[in-house]
Amino acid sequence: MTDAKPHSSGCTRIMERREIRTLSDKERNTYFSAIKQLQSGAAPTVYDSYVSLHWKMANSTHGFPEFLPWHRAFILDFERTLQKIDASIVLPYWDWTYDSQAPELAPIWRSDWYGGNGRPGDNCVTDGQWADWRPFYPQPHCLHRNWDGNNTMSAYYSPEITRYLQTTAQLYDDFRVRLEAPPHAQVHNSIGGEMPTMFSPNDPVFYLHHAYIDKAWSEWQALSPRNARAYDGTNADGTPAKLSSPLTGLPYRVSDVIDIGQLCYTYIPFPGTHDSDEDGAPIAHSTPPPSDAVWNGTSPNAFERQNLYKLRAPILLLDSVILMNQQIVGEVRRLEALLRVAIDEFNSLPGYISPAALINRPDFVKRLSGTDKDPAAGHSSYSVPSTTHTATATATADPGREIGRPSGMREKADVRVSKPDADPANNGASRVAAKSF
Ligand SMILES: [Cu+2]
């Protein structure tokens, strides 16, 4: 992890941010206990002060270009504070796209990690590392989660969709808008409790989620030299967004955080999600496909768990969540419709099997959970089910055969401004997802 020699960038070491599953037990527990140390002592604690900062600055840091650089700086500051407790700590990220088709089965919810859903009635999380944690803001309370299903969650947006957003957005703020809502906001929304509020850093899952969002931005930046320092749009105060724009409430300008290389960190990809070609086009796995993998004209809904092959359509965001994020409801609905078209088009490709769809199989989850036994091993020994598709006896893998991006997807998506489907399942779920406070 460390690099003793000064790096060409002037870094003495490059911190490698890794997917939380690929940390050893020792690394993960070091991270957890440092967070708990920030939460100890008289309230408001150091940990609480981050929550307060996030909440106070929320109005200009969500729904504007600042969203990505501000959260980059925010979690970086948090990481540096943790490093004062233990210099070996590097923020992990949660690649929720990997778990997107059944997020409730993600290992982060384990009883020895973050714990699971809040209990019925008061939404208090009663297991995991933070069962006894009492967030201070807006008033002292138990840690709340309130998943938007019944001990399940809506599907999230998948690896294909992240890749699709990255490869179709030409301008910085176009990418930012598309990433912030729907995909980023929907994870907040579906976890519920603290997460769909501006006190969201009360839930330590916040830092995992935002490290992934930061990773997605850094990948977009790396796609082209033109993207590397791209920054545009309009700030909350109406001024044009520039690299010299200050970050609200933080001692940095955008230019200070635009390049993660200069910040001396990098993201180690999580191999499980890279089952597509360079452009994000999916790979066809079999001819003929298993019967479940044949497109029947409808993408499975957000809470469906039987279909192992097709991408589920996540639920729509609540109006209240969109408005809290300073976004325009009509614009987000347009983006949701665009992503729904993309999901349908992926699913309709002949022989298409989502690389994420199979991981809701209990046998895969078991395999994932059992890989962190050796504290010294780290990610190098992590065995990723890189051939998830071949696990189905009926699917004869043919990873060499690629299909291109669905023809016309971009054009079609861009002109599509119709309202998203009124899916009764989505509406029902939205009601369940009422904010807990
Ligand atoms: Cu935020």
UniProtKB/TrEMBL annotation:
How is this protein named in the record?
Tyrosinase copper-binding domain-containing protein
GO MF terms held by the record: metal ion binding; oxidoreductase activity
Keyword line: Copper, Metal-binding
Which Gene3D superfamilies does this one have? Answer: Di-copper center containing domain from catechol oxidase
| Basic and acidic residues biased stretches | 399-422
Q: Where is the Tyrosinase copper-binding domain?
A: 203-214
Matching entries from InterPro entries are given as: Di-copper_centre_dom_sf (IPR008922), Tyrosinase/Hemocyanin (IPR050316), Tyrosinase_Cu-bd (IPR002227)
Q: Where is the composition biased (Low complexity)?
A: 387-397
Region Disordered: which residues? 276-298, 370-437
Q: Which domain of life is it from?
A: Eukaryota
